[in-house]
Design a protein that fits this description.
The chain is mainly beta and about 325 residues long. Helix content is about 5%, strand content about 45%. The chain is built from two helices and 25 strands. The strands form six sheets. Strands 3, 4, 5, 6, 7, 8, 9 and 25 form an eight-stranded antiparallel beta sheet that branches. It has a four-stranded antiparallel beta sheet with strand order 10-11-12-13, with no helix packed on it.
Length: about 325
C-alpha cells in the first residue's frame, strides 16, 4: 500500500468504509482527554463522540447572526458580531472575543473583518477584511491591536482562511485566493502558490497541508515546500475542509446527504488516517462553518441536554 507518514502515523491512500472501531477510539479519547469538536454558528456548539450528537451551548454574545471560530484549546471564541444601527441596513461586522463559558468578553469594535483563525499561542488572529470591491487578508495582534495586511489585494470573494490556517511555529499562514492554495511568510511578507485547490488546513506538526479539489471531489496533502503532493481520498459529497485532530491521527469533514430533491442534510465525518477507516459522529450539522478539534474536559462538562435538531439520525448515503 502506498503510504505517507505524518505525526508518527501512516496516512493510507484508498477507499474506506464505515468503521465503528473509529467511534470506539474517539469515545475513549473523549473520556480520557476531553477530546471533542467545537464550533460557533450563532451559538456555541460541541460535538460529543460518546453521544454521537451535536449540542447547542447557547449564545455567548448578544448580537445576532454571528459566526465565529473556537480557539485550539477550546477556552475562547472569536466571534464576528453583526451590530445593527438605527436603520435596518445600517450594520457593521466587528470582532468579539469571549470565553466558551460566557465569561471575559473583550470587544474589538475597531476591527471590521470576517471569520478568524487563531494562532496556536492565541496571540494573533488571521482574518478576512472586506473592503469593497477588494478583499484583503489580515493578521491581528491581540496585544497591540495592530493589523498586518497581506498583499496584494484581490477581488476574489472566495479568498479565505480556514479555522486551521497557522503553521505550528506561527511564522506562516496558509490560505486560499484565486483558486490556489498559498502560503504567506509573515516576516518577509511574501506568499507562494503550492497548488490549485481550496480550503487548506495545516497539520498540527507542520508536515502537511491538506486541501480540496472541488472539481474532482478529491482531498490532497502537500508539504509546505510544495513537494510530496498526494491524493488522500475521493469523496463525491464532501463540502468542507479537512479538520485535523490535535495529534494529527484523525481528520473531520462535512458530508452532504439529501432528504429529498434540493433539500440538503449534513453529517460530520471522522476518518482515521492510519487505516483510512471512518465513521459519522453527528448529523444535522452546518455545512460551511469552521470546526475545531479541542481537548477540554471543562467544555464537555457544560453540555446541555438540548441537542441540535437534526431531523434524521443515521449514517450518510454512499458517495
Amino acid at each position: 500500500m502506498l503510504a505517507i507518514v505524518a505525526i508518527g502515523s501512516a496516512i493510507s491512500l484508498g477507499a474506506a468504509g464505515m468503521d465503528e472501531s473509529v467511534l470506539t477510539e474517539l469515545v475513549r479519547l473523549e473520556k480520557e482527554t476531553g477530546l471533542a469538536i467545537a464550533f460557533y454558528d450563532n451559538e456555541l456548539g460541541v460535538i460529543s463522540f460518546k453521544k454521537r450528537a451535536s449540542y447547542d451551548m447557547g449564545k455567548l454574545v448578544p448580537m445576532g447572526n454571528s459566526g465565529g471560530t473556537v480557539s485550539p484549546d477550546g477556552a475562547e471564541v472569536a466571534v464576528d458580531s453583526l451590530n445593527w444601527g438605527p436603520g435596518y441596513r445600517d450594520h457593521t461586522m466587528s470582532l468579539d472575543i469571549v470565553g466558551t463559558d460566557g465569561s471575559a468578553l473583550r470587544e474589538h469594535r475597531e476591527v471590521r473583518g470576517g471569520i478568524a483563525c487563531w494562532s496556536h499561542d492565541k496571540s494573533k488572529l488571521a482574518m478576512v477584511l472586506v473592503e469593497p470591491p477588494d478583499v484583503r487578508l489580515g493578521i491581528l495582534d491581540l496585544a497591540t491591536k495592530k493589523m498586518q495586511t497581506l498583499e496584494p489585494r484581490t477581488t476574489d470573494r472566495d479568498s479565505r482562511f480556514t479555522s486551521q490556517c497557522w503553521s505550528p511555529n506561527g511564522k506562516e499562514l496558509v490560505f486560499e485566493a484565486n483558486g490556489n492554495v498559498q502560503v504567506y511568510e509573515i516576516e518577509t511578507g511574501h506568499s507562494r502558490i503550492l497548488a490549485p485547490g481550496t480550503e487548506p488546513t495545516w497539520s498540527p506538526d507542520g508536515t502537511w497541508i491538506a486541501y480540496r479539489d472541488k472539481q474532482h471531489s478529491d482531498y490532497y496533502v502537500i508539504h509546505p515546500s510544495g513537494d510530496g503532493r498526494k491524493r488522500l481520498f475521493h469523496k463525491g459529497r464532501a463540502v468542507s475542509p479537512l479538520y485535523w485532530s490535535p495529534d494529527g491521527r484523525f481528520v473531520a469533514y462535512t458530508h452532504e446527504d439529501f432528504f429529498a430533491l434540493d433539500v440538503e442534510f449534513y453529517h460530520l465525518m471522522v476518518r482515521r488516517l492510519q487505516d483510512n477507516s471512518e465513521t459519522w459522529v453527528a448529523d444535522g450539522v452546518a455545512c460551511c462553518i469552521g470546526y475545531q478539534w479541542v481537548r477540554n474536559p471543562e467544555l464537555l462538562k457544560q453540555l446541555k441536554p438540548r441537542l441540535r435538531l437534526s431531523g434524521r439520525r443515521g449514517p450518510p448515503k454512499a458517495g
